[in-house]
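User: Hi! Is it possible to get a structure for several chains at once, not just one? Here's what I have:
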Amino acid sequence: MNISYLYSLIAVIVLALFAYVGSKFGGGEALFGIIFPLLAGLTFTVGFIYRIVDWARSPVPFRIPTTCGQQKSLPWIESACIENPTTTAGVVVRMILEVVLFRSLFRNTTCELKEGDKLAYRWEIWLWVGALAFHYAFFTVVVRHLRFFMEPVPVCLQFLETLDGFLQIGLPGLMLSGVVLLAAAVFLFLRRILTPHVRYISLASDYFPLFLIMGIAFSGILMRYFTKVEIVNVKAFTMGLVTLQPHIPDGIGGIFYVHLFLVSVLLVYFPFSKLMHLGGIFMSPTRNLTTDTRAKRHINPWNSPVKIHTYEHYEDEFREKMVDVGLPVDKMLEAQPPEAPEAPETPEAPEAPETPEVPEKPEVPAEPEAPEAPEKKE
Amino acid sequence: MPKKKMYDQGKVFAGLAIFVGLLIFPFLLNLGKAAPAPELKLSDKAKAAKECVESKAYMTAEHMQLLNEWRETVVRNAQRVYVNSSGKKFEMSLSNTCLDCHSEKAEFCDKCHNYAAVTPYCWDCHVDPKETM
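Assistant: Yes, the chains can be modeled jointly so their relative placement is included. Here is the combined structure:
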C-alpha cells in the first residue's frame, strides 16, 4: 500500500464524516452551512490574491520562455510566430491556446525501451484527454451551479443545462458534465497509481485534491439522482448566503453538508496547493514572455543598485592625508589651473602612464597650500 | 517581509480585478434583494383531496421519476392504471389526472421549476389547456 494515497483517502473520508455527523448536532447546521463556507470563501479570495501578488514580486532573472519553433532572426528564415513568439500578440495567442487547449500537454511524449534495448519515443495523448475532460467538466459544473446564486436565472445558464443534459437520460435528467468529471478524476487517479513511474513521483498533495474532487462530485451526484435533496430549499439557502441574509432551511440532509463542507475544504486548500495553477498559468515566465532575446536586452531585475566607491571619490575623501604621507594623487589639493583638465580622467588612475607624473605632484601643492597641510600633520 | 517591487503591476492588478469581480458578481447582483423559496398555491380541488397519488414527501422528491415511469408504462405497455402504496387506483395521465387537481400550472409546476431553473420537457408534447387559450 502506498501511504500517499491511503492518507489522502482517509483524510477525505474523515472530513466527509466530520461534516455528516457534525451537521446533526445543535448549531452544526449553522457552522457547516454558513460559517465554514463564508470563511472558506474569504480564505480563498485573500489567499489567491496573496499568492498572485507574491509571484508578481518575484523577479524573472532571464527571459526563460520554452520554445519549440524557429526564433525570429533573418528575414529569409521562416519563424514560428506562435511557437516562438517575438511579439505580444504572439504571446497572447500562445497563452490562449495554452489555457484553453492545454497545448503543451498535447505534445506530451513518453519514452520506453522496446525489444529490450531500443529507446523509443511515443506520442502520449491520454493525459491530455483526461486533463481536458476533467477541466472542462469541472468548469461546466461550476457554471451550472450559478443557478443557485441568481434569481431569476439567466437564459444562458438554462441553455447550458439543456445542452449538458441533451441525452435526456432518466429523470432528473442526467448531466453529462457531472459524470465526465467523476470519470476523469477517477482516470487521473488510476493513471497515478497504475503507471509505475508516475506513482513514484506522486505525493499526498497529488492524491488529496483528486479524492476531494471525487468526493464533491460523488456527493453531488448522490444528491441529484439518488437521495433527492429538496432543491428549492437548497436554493433558498444559497440565495440567503449571497444576499447576506443567511438562514438554514429545513429538510436538507447530511449529504448536502458533506458536499458543502468538501467544497469549503477545497476552497481553503486551493491557494496553498498546486491547484493555484489556475492563477499561476498566467504568471508562468516560460509561457508569457516574448522570445526577443536577440533583439532586446533583458536586465536582471534583481540586480539591486550596487554602492560604488570610485577611486575619484576615494581620493576626494583622503586626498589631504595621502598628500601628507606622500602618496601619489591624481588631483592636487586646490590644483593649479593647468593641471585641472587631467582630473576627469582620474577613474583610470591605476593606469601606468600617469603614475610617473604623480610623484611630482605632492611637491607642487606643498608650496601654495602650505598653511593647511602642516595643520593636519600635527 | 521586506517590501519588494511588484513587476507588471498593471497587468497583475487587471487580472486580479477580473478574478475578484467574478467572485463577488453574484453578491453584487443580489445586493439588497431577497429571493425566498416560492410558495405553492394549491387549487381548491387539490386542497380538498388532501393527498396526491402518493405522500407529499414522496411526491416532492420523486414526482419526476413517477411521471417518467407513468409515461413508459402507458406508452410501451399500454397499461393505464396506477396502484399507489395504499392500494388506491389512478389513471396514469398527466393531463387528466395531475392537471385535473393541479389545474394552475403557472402557480404549481412553474413556480418551483423556474426558481430552481429546471426546464422539464413534459411540455414539449403536453399542453396546458389554459396557456393555449
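Chain B touches chain A at residues 4-9, 12, 15-16, 19-20, 23, 26-27, 29-38, 60-62, 64-65, 67-68, 112, 114-119, 121 (CB under 8 Å). Strands of chain B lie at 81-83, 89-91.

User: Great, thank you!
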